[in-house]
Structure formats: C-alpha cells, structure tokens
C-alpha cells in the first residue's frame, strides 16, 4: 500500500467541533524532557535513564461518523470522506464520497486537459449539487455536536 497526495477541487464540508480533551500517559526522561519515546520504550535512548510516566492533556479528533447516532451511522456509512483537519481551528474537512445523482459536486481534472476556467456558475452548480445530494445527512450533522458546519467550495490536498 502506498501513500499518495490527492487534490480535491470542489465542494466540501467544514465542520467545527467541540474540543475533546483526553488525558494520556507518555514516558519522559528526567534529563531529556522534550524528547519523544515510543510506548514500548523503558529507557532513554540518549542517556539510558529509566523513563518515568507523565500524564498530559491531549486534544483528540474523531471520525465524523461519531457525530451520528447508531442507526444513522449504518445508514450514512461511506457517504462522506474525512480528508483532513486543522487542529488549531478544531475543524475537520469532508468531501462527498458518492456518485452525485444531481450532477458533479467537484471538478475532476485529468492531466493534459489544459486550462479549466472555474466560473461562478460552475462553483454554484457544484455547491447546489452537493447540498442536494447530502441534504439529509447535513441536517443530521447540524443537529448534533458540531459547533458549526459550512458548505464550501475550494481546493484541498490530502494524503491517502
Ligand atoms: Zn535521557
């Protein structure tokens, strides 16, 4: 399995989440407090000192599906693809994962096609198609734990 960089140009969902603060235990060396160690390590790889546990507060992010109840999780599994996040903004970004029955909600550009002008009409069409395709799901997400949800058009790069 390889990792590739993908580019999405089109509609996407921006969901702002309540921060989830979790406590976790990390191992630290009293002599090298900023060095990071794997969970399986017991001694400092720099000085050989025995590592000590330290409890830290960490912010975690979850899968968008966790915003739905169990019944809706089954219903909407695979509808959206959570492609990236912005931890500072407590935001996750999702793109459509279904063949849109109302028309395209993004631009698929093959190499060698030359230039493609993105007009206001194309943007509006993509946004409309996206909103219609995912309307019910978006309404479900709006009534749950999000702090905010926006449908946007733009350019996202992500690793798959
Ligand atoms: Zn050390």
Provide a descriptive summary of the structure in words:
This protein has 160 residues and is α+β, with helices and mostly antiparallel strands. It has 2 domains: 5-19 and 62-159, no CATH class; 22-58. The protein contains 3 helices and 7 strands; from the N terminus they run βββαβββααβ. The chain has helices spanning 70-76, 120-133, 135-142; strands at 5-17, 20-28, 52-60, 80-86, 91-96, 106-107, 146-159. The longest helix has 14 residues, at 120-133. The N and C termini lie close together (10 Å). The model has no long low-confidence stretch (mean pLDDT 89). The protein binds zinc ion. Zinc ion binds next to loops.
How are the SSEs ordered, and which strands pair?
Elements: E1 5-17, E2 20-28, E3 52-60, H1 70-76, E4 80-86, E5 91-96, E6 106-107, H2 120-133, H3 135-142, E7 146-159
Antiparallel strand pairs: 1-5, 1-6, 1-7, 2-3, 4-5
The structure holds zinc ion (ZN).
Zinc ion binds next to loops.
Largest sheet: 5 strands, antiparallel
Beta-strand percentage? Answer: 35-45%
The end-to-end distance, rounded to whole angstroms, is 10 Å
Unreliable stretches: none
Average pLDDT taken over every residue:
89
Helix content: 10-25%
Number of separate strands: 7
Class by SSE composition? alpha+beta
**Total helical elements:** 3
Tell me the number of structural domains: 2
What is the N-to-C order of secondary-structure elements (H for helix, E for strand)? EEEHEEEHHE
Bound molecules: zinc ion
Q: Output the radius of gyration.
A: 21 Å
Shape: elongated
């Amino acid at each position: 399995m390889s990792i590739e960089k993908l580019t999405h140009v089109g509609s996407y969902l921006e969901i702002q989440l309540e921060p989830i603060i979790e406590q976790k235990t990390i191992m630290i060396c009293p002599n090298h407090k900023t060095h990071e160690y794997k969970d399986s390590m017991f001694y400092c790889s720099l000085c050989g000192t025995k590592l000590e546990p330290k409890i830290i507060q960490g912010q975690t992010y979850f899968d968008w599906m966790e915003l739905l109840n169990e019944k809706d999780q089954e219903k909407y599994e695979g509808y959206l693809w959570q492609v990236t996040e912005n931890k500072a903004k407590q935001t996750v970004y999702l793109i459509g994962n279904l063949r849109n029955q109302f028309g395209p909600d993004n631009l698929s550009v093959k190499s060698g096609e030359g230039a493609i002008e993105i007009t206001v009409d194309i943007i509006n069409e993509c946004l409309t198609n996206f909103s219609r395709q995912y309307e019910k799901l978006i309404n479900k997400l709006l009534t749950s734990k999000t702090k905010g949800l926006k449908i946007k058009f733009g350019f996202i790069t992500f690793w798959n």
